[in-house]
Amino acid sequence: MVRQLLLRLVAFSLVVFAVRAAFAQAPESSRADVAADTTAAFSRALEFYNSKYYASALNLFRQAAAAGNVEAMVYLGVMYGNGQGMAADPAQAMTWFLKAAAAGNDQAMTDVGLLYFRGSGVPRDYAQAMTWFLKAADAGNAEAMFNIGVLNRDGLGLHTSYPEAMRWFSKAAAVGYAAAMNEIGVLHQQGLGLPVNYEQAMNWYQKAADQGSSSAMFNIGVLYENGDGVPKDRNQALAWYKKAAEAGNEDARKVLAELKAEP
Q: φ and ψ at 156, to 5 degrees?
């Protein structure tokens, strides 16, 4: 999507600057009042957002962001990126994520990286994506660690390196990121960068499934259906495919339909 007209962007920037200047120069008691109002605006915005009253949420997030609330900036980026309450505008999403990233928010850094990764609102640039993911990972963001693993696994913007992918997936898994646990299982199952090890694959899939990963549930079903590292068991496969389907996995739904159609 195209950015808003420059005039509107400049006008909005001046409003933000004026609000922040007033906050900086206000007496201590007035600052406390502004901070309280900002917190209240953000909390109310969050209520509207979770209830999907996006237009109301958007206005209040803008107020909170204008007063310096970093989380509100992130939410504005999400809303512009997803087109919640307005037409999707990745360029505006990038603007807000960059503001929040400049204030040290690691999720915003990750989201800037994702926009570069997807080529959304900016030309696709895996090197820039990696730069931002590394910044976020240094700040402890598990999603960014996982994304670095994906770039290394798939050779996006750099040479494929399964050991580096495993290293980053392991970092993310160590802080409880289920998708990374699942990918470690895939590396073991497919023998990518290490010998095939179905026992380790099952171990990591189980960990990820315990965290709610539908992909891991599906992969456990595959191991049982094929008898890889476990006795071949159609009933167990069906049970895991069903769990995955109930958790929203489309591949599991398709496989279930196919298996049920078999004699």
A: -95, 105
Asked whether 202 and 220 are in contact (CB, 8 A), the reply is yes
Dist CA 72 CA 229 (whole Å)? 48
SS3 121: coil
Q: Among positive and negative, which fits the CA dihedral 79, 169, 193, 226? A: negative
Does the residue 238 lie in any domain?
no
Q: Three-class SS of residue 95?
A: helix
pLDDT of 260 reads 79
Which residue range(s) make up the domain with 83? 1-103
CB 119 within 8 A of CB 131: no
What's this model's pTM, rounded to 2 decimal places? Answer: 0.83
The CA dihedral of 204, 208, 211, 215, to the nearest 10 degrees, is: -160
Maximum Cα–Cα distance across the chain:
79
Overall average pLDDT of the 92-104 stretch: 97
Say if 175 falls within a structural domain.
Answer: no
Residue 79 forms part of a structural domain: yes
Residue 131's nearest CA partner among 143, 118, 148, 119 is 148
Q: Do residues 45 and 60 lie in contact, with contact meaning Cβ atoms separated by under 8 Å?
A: yes
CA–CA dist 204, 184 (Å, integer): 7
Averaged pLDDT of the chain:
87
